[in-house]
Each structure stands twice: as structure tokens, then as C-alpha cells.
Amino acid sequence: AADGGGDGDQAGAANIAPLQAMVDRDTAICRGLEMSAQPDAWQYGLRAAKSGHVPSILRFVLQPPLDEKEFGKDLAGWQAYRQSAGPLLVQAAERGDPTAVYHLFLAYSGFPMPGGTPILAPDDERALTYAIVSQALVDDRSVRVIQRRVDLLEARMDADARARAAANAQRILATRRAGKEGRLNIADNPIPQTPIDCDQP
Description:
Helix 2 (41-50) crosses helix 3 (54-62), helix 2 packs parallel to helix 4 and helix 6 packs across helix 8. The chain has helices spanning 7-30, 41-50, 54-62, 75-94, 98-108, 124-135, 140-155, 159-175, 195-198. It has 9 helices and no strands. The longest helix has 24 residues, at 7-30.
């Protein structure tokens, strides 16, 4: 039999040696560490959101790293989501983020978030407040889409509630610092809307 290929075997051995060194190093680092002790992706996301970082808040609230088809697999994550997503979204909106403001309007209007999860109790007055604020932060087409919801909200509210919502919206807008971001196009938002919000203006 031939002696086994000479140069080819040596090249193969030379390629394997650094890979084996990496495996040995990683094995030593991970020795004794159980995978079950590692945080799930949703825990990392929640930790980042709770730090007050607005993009992390939006990612956690609008696109949580949780299984929407098998809730049982991520039961603890969904429970944490239901408990934390609403207050986190309020926090991001209070910091003036247009996407957060728009989704806060949806949440107070009773629209479910990921997984069909309601994250805030429906509240017409707050919904109308954030609808009005949203209209100041979105593009022209989006203003018309939001106006349909404004009309529905106003139709079931009394004059005092409408006036309070409008006054609250003006207070929020007066304290908001003008940002450099462009006006929000709600068609780009990742959460599906009901047909009334998807109709062409």
C-alpha cells in the first residue's frame, strides 16, 4: 500500500491543529457550565430594555424573541412580556420616540401586540391623546390613517374627555424636543393592523 499521500496529510494535519486548539480552549472555558444556567434571548432583551435604551425597548415590545406558535415553550418569557411591555412602551414614548408614541396609541386603543397579547388596559382618553401626538410625528398618509381611529374614538367619548385628551396631547407636544428623525411612516411598522388601518386613504 502507498504511504498515505505525504504532503496532503501534512497539510490536513496543519489545518486540524489550530481547530483542535480552539476546541480545547473552549472546552476548558465551558467546563462545568450548564447550558440551562444561561439566560434565554428574551431575558437579554428584557435586561437591555430595562436599562432604558429606547431601541432595545422597541425591539423587546414589538418583536420579542419569543415563540408565538408554542406559548408553552416560552411561558416564563410571555409572562415577563405581559408584565413589562406596557410600562416599557410608556417609558419610550415619554422620551419622545415616534414609533413608541404610535404604538402606545395602538395599545391604549386595545390593539394586541405580538402573540395577541394586550399590554395595557384599553383607555379611550389616553388612546386619543397619543393618536393626536402621533399625528404630529407621522407623514401625511399616516395622518389620514390615524384620523380614522381618532374619529371612532371621539364618537364614543363625551366632550369633556375629548377636551382633556386634546389638552394632554398639546402638553406632551410642548415638552417634546424636536428631533432630527424624519416623520414616521406607519406602513413600515412591524405590527399588523386591523383592516380599518390598512385601507387606502
